[in-house]
Specification:
The chain has three domains: about 90 residues, Uridine Diphospho-n-acetylenolpyruvylglucosamine Reductase, domain 2, CATH 3.30.43.10; about 120 residues, 2-Layer Sandwich (Uridine Diphospho-n-acetylenolpyruvylglucosamine Reductase, domain 3), CATH 3.30.465.10; about 190 residues, 3-Layer(aba) Sandwich (Vanillyl-alcohol Oxidase, Chain A, domain 3), CATH 3.40.462.10. It has 15 helices and 21 strands. The strands form four sheets. It has an eight-stranded antiparallel sheet. Strands 5, 6, 7, 8, 9 and 10 form a six-stranded antiparallel sheet that branches. β8 and β9 form a beta hairpin. It is globular and about 70 Å long. About 50% of the residues are buried. Bound molecules: flavin-adenine dinucleotide. It holds the Pfam family FAD_binding_4.
Length: about 475
């Protein structure tokens, strides 16, 4: 089945279609270049056309038309994903969700919204309506969409209290359109949510989401400085365990991250400072300060509600999660990163071992998370990149030590996850995308169930570089 791009484009020409080469190239890219491995492999990838639906009916029309003409469809929220998630590896159509951004209903504890709504706009609407906000958001809050967060993200600011996006209760309902001769509209709740959440749009297009909300607060941003990494680690873990202190963020940055890469923080820290970034609810500040008093090694150097810095650092969450890597990359383009999960109960010992084994080649950047009632660390370790072989070796040594790696230097769901098929996602793809046209090349088990993960998967349909 050879795609008939011209016929699909012609049939959709009455919709909002981008025609300029520049716009098509820009909308074919995401933040894949964070990875030196993906940068060399995906830089040339480009769609044939970009179309932006205004309604679910237009989504259905686009999918029906592209199905009829065998044209691949890769959905784009805002394109802030890191692994080429929103990049059209086989060309074809990029469906950009920017016009479908309506906040439809807000109720106590939940919101119903279209996928293209920016996280910041959604928070603003919920706050204005009834003093509520999203339980969690990616650090790309200002630019990313709620649909892209659910289809491509994993968690973020808020996960210290609420856990990961995939945890039960963190998504209430998704409305999904299939890629068939006659697309169907399905509603998923409960177990069914796992078919399409974090599936990179490979098996259905989300056209509406129902998400849980929490009370909104004017969070206090805080930096606490430590001379000693282990003291900072113990502090962060202990704070994660303080159930009575309401917090939205606790990030740990091993020295010299803060001094080398956080320009506005640099005058306030030393090269050997390990920094902890925090968001604490205002009514929890007394509890927090009492907790801090029990950790004399920690020195409070910044609080947004009582600031004495000449230049404010801006939102502390924009130093955390993958913004840490972004800040480092701006200063030193040779920096890259890993995504690590340090599970309870060995999380502290494992971080200490990885630090002992890899410092200073790998710098520890940790995010405190909740998982099944326990405190764990998500590591977004920063790596001084030398070669792909060495990067693979660092990954292997982490895995051998018992750390779980979600490899950000791969573009497939499986390699960015647990290196195995997600049967629910695969089964639903068989049903909802029988021609395999949705975001091709991202689900290995669809293309090649025998892939053994001993080497990087190379999607055979990947556009050839010119
Ligand atoms: P896109 O990148 O456009 O899309 C992501 C994936 O979802 C793609 O596979 C796309 O095809 C699919 N998709 C988009 N919309 C739909 C839809 N309607 N239906 C079906 N599939 C769809 N991620 C986190 O989880 N937590 C973080 O804290 C975080 N921090 C980041 C910091 C930086 C600096 C950067 C560059 C990235 C970060 N990310 C993080 C990754 C990314 O920003 C988030 O996951 C973000 O929420 C993705 O939203 P988006 O609108 O940009 O999605």
């Amino acid at each position: 089945m050879k795609p008939n791009v011209a016929a699909a484009k012609e049939a959709l020409s009455h919709l909002d279609i981008e025609t300029s080469d520049r716009a098509i190239r820009a909308k074919s890219r995401d933040f894949f270049w964070y990875s030196p491995v993906l940068k060399t492999r995906l830089d040339h990838v480009e769609a044939d056309f970009v179309v932006s639906p205004r309604s679910e009916a237009e989504v259905i029309e686009i999918l029906r038309t592209c199905y009829a003409h065998d044209v691949p469809v890769t959905t784009r929220g805002a394109g802030t994903g890191n692994y080429g998630q929103a990049m059209p590896l086989a060309g074809g159509c990029v469906m950009h969700m920017r016009h479908m951004a309506a906040v439809k209903e807000i109720h106590p504890g939940r919101v119903i919204v279209e996928p293209g709504c920016l996280l910041k706009d959604l928070d603003a609407a919920c706050q204005e309506h009834s003093g509520q906000e999203l339980r969690m958001f990616s650090s790309t809050w200002a630019t990313a969409t709620i649909g892209g967060f659910v289809a491509g993200g994993s968690g973020g600011i808020g996960s210290i209290t609420w856990g990961a996006l995939r945890d039960l209760g963190n998504i209430i309902r998704l409305r999904v359109v299939t890629m068939e001769e006659e697309p169907r509209v399905l509603e998923f709740r409960g177990e069914e949510l796992h078919r399409v959440s974090h599936a990179y749009g490979t098996n259905g297009i989300i056209t509406e989401l129902e998400m849980p909300l929490a009370p909104a607060y004017d969070w206090t941003d805080i930096f606490v400085a430590f001379d000693d990494f282990d003291a900072a680690l113990e502090f962060a873990n202990g704070l994660g365990n303080q159930d009575g202190i309401l917090k939205k963020l606790c990030s740990v940055y091993e020295a010299p991250i803060a001094h080398s890469y956080f320009q506005r923080v640099q005058p306030h820290v030393a090269e050997d400072t390990t920094l902890v970034g925090l968001m604490i609810a205002p009514h929890s500040m007394e509890g927090f300060l009492t907790f801090l008093g029990r950790h004399p090694a920690g020195q409070l150097i910044y609080r947004s509600d009582d600031n004495d810095w000449d230049r404010t650092p801006g939102p502390v969450f924009e130093y955390g999660w993958n913004h840490t890597t972004l800040r480092a990359l701006r200063v030193d383009p040779s920096i890259t990163y890993l995504q690590v999960r340090y599970a309870y109960p060995d999380h502290i010992a494992l971080v200490q071992k990885m630090r002992a084994d890899f410092s200073p080649e790998v710098m520890q950047h940790l995010e405190v998370m909740r998982e099944s009632g326990r405190t764990i660390f998500a590591g977004l370790s920063m790596v001084r990149f030398t070669t792909e072989e060495r990067l693979d070796e660092i990954v292997r040594l982490h895995e051998e030590a018992g750390a779980i790696i979600f490899n950000p230097h791969r573009y497939t769901l499986e390699e960015g996850g647990r290196q195995s098929a997600d049967q629910r996602q695969l089964d639903f793809k068989r049903e909802a995308d029988p021609k395999g046209l949705l975001n091709p090349g991202k689900m290995i088990t669809w293309d090649n169930p025998d892939h053994d993960y001993s080497s990087m998967y190379a999607y055979p349909g990947l556009q050839a570089a010119e």
